[in-house]
Each structure stands twice: as structure tokens, then as C-alpha cells.
Design a protein that fits this description.
receptor; globular; membrane; transmembrane; transmembrane helix; about 0% strand
Length: about 290
């Protein structure tokens, strides 16, 4: 790998761990954040947190610290986390699609039980389709045709998600703008569902920008139209980490309930520090 990757990739990895760790903490510790929508936010944050923990640190540990390292198994686990992030983003986009396109039927269509099931499916698909066969093949338990398998994995977790997310999010944005023009005649609950499109729109946009190079790299890998360049692979690895680091930023600045809880934490800590400082000043004056 290029030197620039080793020198720079640790920063987005750290941001992915800290940012997604904060999102996980907020959703689990704040009762007001335990909504159906935030179940998908939590699931995606866990996947992105694991990407930050496993991807670059696994490369660095095997490269610089360990003399012997099973790089195949390490890569299998890291790619599983990446694919889990992609499938969880698709689950979140599907949830927002129902909330925007069918707002009157959202509660009946997306129940708590169905939300849990959808989040579980988002983890099970990459586990069954990718991790189990890949690890078993790496351990020599059975043989698979990796060329055919890579085509299948790339189609399921790269080409199809990029196309589906683009079309779905585009429709969500168009419909949400149509609803926003009639905000004065709608309930607060409707407006919250409509304006939440900005969050999924931002997250999907970042995803598409980061994975555009990945799709191009995969296209070059499968065809002879464009040359395969090792530098592109390094860029792909870096952008994958960037994507996982950018998602919690979108939650913090665009998601109202998440931003409100962050403001409460910041204001509470500021109040405690101010009161502590005044108490020390009074004690010094005595």
C-alpha cells in the first residue's frame, strides 16, 4: 500500500470509531431516541463503528506489529463489516422511503417487530452470502470459484445498492419537497417525517460519492476496458473509511432528535463547569 494511506487513514478511522461510538451511546442511553427510525440509525452506526475498528487497524497491525497474520481471514471480517454497513444503509433508506411515500400507513407498515426483523436481515445477508462461504473457503473447508463469487458479491453489495439507493433517494427527495410546500397544512409529525429526508439524502450522497471509485475499480477488475491501478485500490480503501466516518456527522448536524440530545449534553457540561468554577472562586475568596 502507498505511504500516504498509512499516514492519513488513521484519522478517518479514529473519527469513525469516536463518531459512531457517540451515536451508539446516545441511542442506547437516551429514552427519547429509542424510535423505530433510530433502530436503523443504531444498526448502521454499529456497522460503521466496526469498520473503523477492523479495517485500517487490522491492516496496520498485520503490516507493522505481527510477523505472522492471517490476512485472508482479516480481510474477510473487514469486508463483512463494510458490506453490513451497505446493507444497513439500504434498510435505513427503505424505512425512510416508506415514511415519506406512505406516511399515513407508516405505523402499520413499519412496526417495531418489523423494524427489528429488517435490521437483523441487513446483518444476515452479508453474513450468509459473504462471510460464511468466504471464511470456510479460506480455511479449506470447501472450494468456491472466487471469480464467480466476486462477481456475485460485487453485484449484490456494490452495483445493486448504488443503483437502488440513488433511485430511491431521488424519489424520496422529490416527494419530500412536494410535501414541504404544504407544510403549513400538515401536522408536526408529517413535517418530521418529511424533513428527515435530508438526513438519508446526505448519507446516501456521501455513500455514492465514496463508492463511485469502488464501482469504477470493480468495473476495471471485471473488464479490460480500463487499466487496473494499485493506486485506485488505495483510494478505494481510504474512501470506504471516509464513508463510515461521515455518517455520524450527518446525524449530529441534520437529525433533529440527535442534535437536541447533543445540545443538552453540551449545555449540561457547560453548566457544571461554570458552577464548579464559581464554587472554586468563592472558596478562594473565603
Amino acid at each position: 500500500m502507498s505511504d500516504w494511506y498509512w499516514m492519513t487513514a488513521w484519522l478517518p478511522s479514529l473519527l469513525a470509531v469516536l463518531g459512531n461510538g457517540l451515536v451508539i451511546y446516545l441511542v442506547l442511553s437516551r429514552p427519547r431516541l429509542r424510535s423505530i427510525q433510530n433502530r436503523f440509525t443504531l444498526s448502521l452506526a454499529i456497522a460503521d463503528f466496526c469498520v473503523g475498528v477492523c479495517y485500517y487497524p487490522g491492516h496496520a497491525i498485520c503490516q507493522f506489529l505481527l510477523n505472522s497474520c492471517n490476512k485472508v481471514i482479516r480481510d474477510d471480517i473487514a469486508v463483512f463489516m463494510i458490506y453490513s454497513s451497505v446493507s444497513n444503509l439500504c434498510a435505513m433508506a427503505f424505512d425512510r422511503y416508506i415514511a415519506i411515500v406512505r406516511p399515513l400507513h407508516y405505523r402499520s407498515l413499519m412496526t417495531t417487530k418489523r423494524a427489528k426483523l429488517l435490521a437483523a436481515v441487513a446483518w444476515m445477508i452479508p453474513l450468509i452470502v459473504y462471510l460464511i462461504p468466504s471464511v470456510c473457503a479460506s480455511l479449506g473447508l470447501f472450494h468456491i470459484n472466487f471469480k464467480i463469487s466476486v462477481v456475485i458479491w460485487t453485484t449484490i453489495f456494490e452495483f445493486f445498492p448504488c443503483t437502488a439507493l440513488f433511485l430511491t433517494t431521488l424519489q424520496v427527495i422529490v416527494i419530500s419537497r412536494r410535501h414541504c410546500r404544504r407544510d403549513s397544512q400538515r401536522s408536526l409529525k408529517w413535517r418530521r417525517n418529511t424533513c428527515s429526508a435530508s438526513v438519508i439524502g446526505t448519507v446516501v450522497t456521501v455513500f455514492l460519492l465514496c463508492y463511485a471509485v469502488e464501482v469504477y475499480s470493480s468495473f476495471c477488475y471485471f473488464t479490460s476496458i480500463c487499466p487496473r491501478d494499485e493506486h485506485i485500490y488505495n483510494v478505494v480503501r481510504f474512501l470506504v473509511i471516509i464513508n463510515s466516518a461521515a455518517n455520524p456527522v450527518a446525524y449530529a448536524f441534520l437529525k433533529r432528535d440527535m442534535r437536541r440530545e447533543l445540545d443538552l449534553i453540551i449545555s449540561k457540561r457547560s453548566f457544571i463547569k461554570t458552577r464548579s468554577r464559581r464554587s472554586n472562586e468563592r472558596s478562594s475568596g473565603i
